[in-house]
Structures are given as structure tokens and as C-alpha cells.
Design goal:
Elements: E1 18-20, E2 24-25, E3 31-32, E4 35-37, H1 42-62, H2 72-84, E5 87-89, H3 97-110, E6 116-118, H4 121-133, H5 136-143, H6 146-157, H7 159-166, H8 171-185, H9 195-210, H10 221-232, H11 246-265, H12 303-312, H13 315-327, H14 331-336, E7 342-343, H15 350-356, E8 366-370, E9 377-381, H16 384-397, H17 430-444, H18 458-470, H19 473-479, H20 492-495, H21 500-513, H22 515-520
Parallel strand pairs: 5-6
Antiparallel strand pairs: 1-4, 2-3, 7-8, 8-9
């Protein structure tokens, strides 16, 4: 950048801060640096200098690697900024109003950090209004710069006048209100937002980012169909040429439908969804190059790796490991497990034993609960080591207030649930972090130098893989509390009981297979 550098800012004798930046041709034909007087306020002078620098950098990019000089249009903008702190774009002679509005929009887009306004506000507003309300072809030419023109409206007239000129409320305004509604609807304790609420906000923000701002008066069947088609065709991820995942596209279409229903119910906006909206096709197709993600051997913990994990685990880490392998529990299932869902040394009733096809005794212990994510009921018979770990956890839990059937079994040292959101409203990571510390400890040991780090969720996949090895796919689905255990029969659960007896027998077979893992923890895995 051609500029006289300085380490400090010093005003001239008349109190002005001066900046020399770029080059221009003098009357004699030689190059000289123009001098910009930036005012007497240092903070404002620094702000104006930053805008001038952006304009000059653009002038340099215009000529590539050659010697740059100030183009007349940019030099005039620079002089206005130096003098007034804002560049007022004049209307050219015989320039149509809509062309003037579009040129203004392009300038705002090219120089996002430069303060720009319209010198002829009447022509500017007339041109922008024409772009909003005339034919589809005119609007299509203008729509790329709609956001910049609309921002110009706000700075010139305020929100109310924007709606009057633009032909009513705008899509982006409705999406922003929708996001605020989501934050209120999914509010969490302490002023935050629940994890699911944050996911909904993220999806709505993607709609705001990917779809052009149009007047709600133009939001009809064709526009909504085009918006859904945009996601059905799986646009590229930001900054890449790779399409978004099929699941991501489906989530965005669901978010769009959620927004449309909200908007149609809203009393703030006089808009109703088209009767044909629900008929719009929304199925996302698969691509030839799609590869279905499957569990691979690299995802699964081997028996030798489980032995090392159990050997080096603390009692808390060991219980996480056991619940993950014994019951296929992930972070959410462990954190939400209550005392009343644990049945230690308790056999099933005789009627239940017959229906389950499994003869339990008072020597057996179980976890019986509804999975929070799916609402599906599940039962798991417990390894003796898992029972010991739960008894250890119960003794620790009694030291905190609120002990009872509905209380969480596992809490932290302050007695707080392990899924309590952080102060910033983010998911609680105490369980994954504890498992990560265990893996680091294994890797630092002599026998674990080649141990591959895997996230905590891979314990759930390892457990499912073990169940399938010792049983079949239906039993694995029941073990994981999936919504539909028999994929070819969605009414199986309506007419038959889930085969928990088969699940229990598979877990008992896995218990025999995992004997080396249990032995690695010693005779007192949870202390005296």
C-alpha cells in the first residue's frame, strides 16, 4: 500500500489529522500522493482512514500488479469520506431511478466497511420501489443487491418506511422474529436456550443466510417451492464444492416448513401459507457418489483396548465404560439415568418371566427405563461389575441433597446433573472429557503407546456390535431402544412384546467374552 507510515497520530497546526494515501496524476503529469484532511477528532480520523484504505486497496486490485492511481469515482468518494465521514453517491445525468438504486446496492456490496448513502434520496427510493414492485425480470436483476438497498432504506428512513416502500414486511425480518421466538420457546434455565432450541436457531439462521430477502407479499407457492427445491438439490457446503449431506438437507426443509407454519399463525404478519404448500415435493434424493456411513472396524474398541481402558480407569470412568458397554448408553442416557430406573437384586414378576422367556432371580439386577430421545422402553440386565459401580455411585449420591427415585444417579462434585448446560448455554461435556482423560492416561502408559483415540460415543457402537455378534439385528435394535426394531414390520411393537429375554441372554454371553476386561480392574474395581 502506497502511504506514508507513522507510529503516532499528530494533528497539524489547525488541529486536523492528515493522511496521504495512494497516487494521482498532478497537472504536470507526474504522480503525487493526495492529502486527505480527516477532521479534528482522533477516533473519527482513524475510522475515516480505514475506509480510505479499503477504497485504495480496491483501486490497486483493479490494475493487478501495475502502478495504481486513484480512479476518479473512487477519489471523489475518498474526498467525501475524508471531509464528512460518509460517501454520498450522486445520481448520474439521465440515469434511470432503478439503475441508480442498483448501482448504489453494488457499491455497498463492494465496500462493506465504507459508509455510503444516496445523495438523491427521492430517486433512490423511487428506483428501489420499482425494483421491488415491477416485473419478475426487473426484480431478478435487482434481487442480488436487495439486502444492501434495504439497509440503505433503514439508514435513511427507518423500519416503518422500509416496509411502506418495499411493499410490506420482508422475509428476513420474519426469519429474525422467528429466531427470537425459538429462543423464547426453547428457553433454558439461566436465560439460555436448550440444545434442541440451539439446533433450531442454527437451521433458521441457515435459511436467513441462503435465501434472498423478498417481500412477504411475493412469498407464494412458486417461491416456497423454489426454496424447498434449493435444499432438495443439496447446495454446496460453504466454501466448498461438495454438496451438503442428505440429512442436512432434510433438516433444512423441515426447518423451512416449521417457519412457514409459524409465520402463518403469527399475528404480527398478515400472511397465510398457500393451501397447496403441503403438496410441495420435499423428498431429498440420494446421489450416486453418496456413501452410507457404516460402523467400521476402526470405530470399534477391541477386547484388548477395553482391557486397557478398564485397567487405567478411575471408579467414575470405569462406571461410564461399563454403562456404555453393558447398556449401550451414550452421554445423554448416562446423564439422565435416575435412581428409580435402577433395580438391583430384583427378579421380574412370574408373569413377566414367562412373557420375556427369561428366568430372572433376585441375584439379577436391571436398568428399566424409557429412552429420552425416542420414548422407547428398554431393559438391560447388568454385569456384576456394573452393579458394583452403581452401588458405588448410590453411596456417593446420598451425600448430596435430593436423593430419591426421580433424582439423577450421577452428579458432579457440586451435586449438579451431568447434562446441565454450561454458563454459556452450551452442552455439558463432563462425560466425554472424563473419557478423553482416560484415553490420554492409557496412551501415556507403556502398553498403550499405540492406542487410537476414539470418542466416548464409540462405546455405544462397540456395545451394539457385540450384541449383534452374539445375537441378531432385531435384538441389537431392542438393545439400543430404537423406534422400529423390525424394519420390515412397523406394527411389530403394536402386536407383540419386545424380546428383552433375548437381549438379556446376549448381554450374558458378552459378559463371558469380556472376562479379561473385568479381571483387569482387580478384585476391588470400586474400592472397599
Amino acid at each position: 500500500m502506497a502511504a506514508r507510515t507513522r507510529k503516532t497520530w499528530r494533528p497539524t497546526a489547525d488541529g486536523q489529522y492528515v493522511r496521504q494515501l495512494g497516487w494521482k496524476a498532478s497537472r504536470s503529469g507526474k504522480l503525487a500522493q493526495p492529502k486527505f484532511r480527516l477532521g479534528t477528532d482522533l477516533r473519527e480520523a482513524r475510522r475515516r482512514e480505514m475506509m480510505l484504505s479499503q477504497l485504495w486497496e480496491h483501486a490497486e486490485r483493479r490494475v493487478g500488479g501495475g502502478r495504481a492511481v486513484w480512479p476518479e469515482d473512487l477519489l471523489e468518494m475518498a474526498r467525501q469520506i475524508a471531509r464528512d465521514g460518509i460517501a454520498r453517491i450522486a445520481r448520474r445525468e439521465d440515469e434511470p431511478a432503478d439503475a441508480y438504486a442498483m448501482r448504489f446496492g453494488k457499491l455497498r456490496q463492494q465496500y462493506p466497511g465504507v459508509a455510503i448513502s444516496a445523495a438523491d434520496e427521492v430517486a433512490f427510493l423511487q428506483g428501489a420501489h420499482a425494483c421491488f414492485s415491477e416485473s419478475q425480470a426487473t426484480y431478478a436483476r435487482f434481487e442480488r443487491f436487495a439486502g444492501d438497498i434495504r439497509q440503505g432504506y433503514r439508514e435513511t428512513l427507518g423500519d416503518q418506511a422500509v416496509e411502506e416502500v418495499a411493499g410490506g414486511p420482508m422475509l428476513h425480518d420474519a426469519l429474525r422474529d422467528h429466531i427470537e421466538w425459538i429462543k423464547g420457546e426453547y428457553a433454558a434455565g439461566g436465560g439460555g436456550v436448550t440444545p434442541w432450541g440451539k439446533t433450531r436457531v442454527k437451521h433458521a439462521e441457515a435459511l436467513l443466510d441462503r435465501h434472498d430477502d423478498i417481500s412477504l407479499s411475493r412469498l407464494g407457492h412458486e417461491q416456497l417451492e423454489a426454496m424447498i427445491r434449493y435444499w432438495r438439490q443439496r447446495p454446496p457446503r460453504k466454501g466448498t464444492d461438495r454438496p451438503i449431506a442428505k440429512k442436512s438437507a432434510e433438516h433444512q426443509i423441515a426447518a423451512l416448513r416449521f417457519f412457514v407454519r409459524w409465520l402463518s399463525r403469527s399475528t404480527k404478519y398478515d400472511w397465510r401459507k398457500p393451501d397447496s404448500f403441503d403438496e410441495i415435493r420435499s423428498r431429498v434424493g440420494s446421489r450416486v457418489d453418496d456413501v452410507r456411513r457404516q460402523v467400521t472396524p476402526e470405530d470399534i474398541f477391541t477386547l484388548d483396548e477395553l482391557v486397557l481402558l478398564n485397567k487405567h480407569a478411575t471408579p467414575f470412568e470405569r462406571l461410564l465404560l461399563l454403562l456404555g458397554i453393558n447398556c449401550g448408553f451414550g452421554r445423554a442416557e448416562i446423564a439422565s439415568l435416575t435412581i428409580g430406573e435402577v433395580f438391583l437384586h430384583t427378579a421380574h414378576e412370574p408373569r413377566h418371566r414367562e412373557i420375556l422367556g427369561f428366568e430372572s432371580t433376585d441375584a439379577d439386577s436391571f436398568i428399566k427405563r424409557y429412552r429420552r430421545k425416542t420414548g422407547v422402553y428398554g431393559e438391560h440386565i447388568l454385569f456384576p461389575h456394573t452393579v458394583a459401580g452403581i452401588e458405588w455411585a448410590l453411596a456417593r449420591r446420598r451425600q448430596h441433597p435430593g436423593f430419591g427415585p426421580d433424582a439423577r444417579l450421577l452428579v458432579n462434585g457440586r451435586g449438579e446433573p451431568l447434562d446441565k448446560l454450561t454458563a454459556g448455554g452450551n452442552p455439558n461435556m463432563q462425560i466425554p472429557n472424563a473419557f478423553a482423560r482416560l484415553i490420554r492416561r492409557v496412551q501415556e502408559s507403556d502398553e498403550g503407546k499405540d492406542f487410537v483415540r476414539r470418542p466416548f460415543k464409540m462405546l455405544r457402537k462397540t456395545a451394539g456390535d457385540l450384541i449383534r455378534r452374539h445375537s441378531d439385528g432385531e435384538v441389537t435394535a431392542v438393545f439400543h431402544c430404537r423406534g422400529q426394531a423390525v424394519r420390515i414390520d412397523d406394527l411389530a411393537d403394536a402386536y407383540t412384546n419386545r424380546p428383552f429375554g433375548k437381549v438379556f441372554r446376549a448381554i450374558q454371553e458378552i459378559e463371558q467374552y469380556l472376562k479379561p476386561m473385568f479381571d483387569a480392574a482387580g478384585k476391588q474395581p470400586f474400592g472397599d
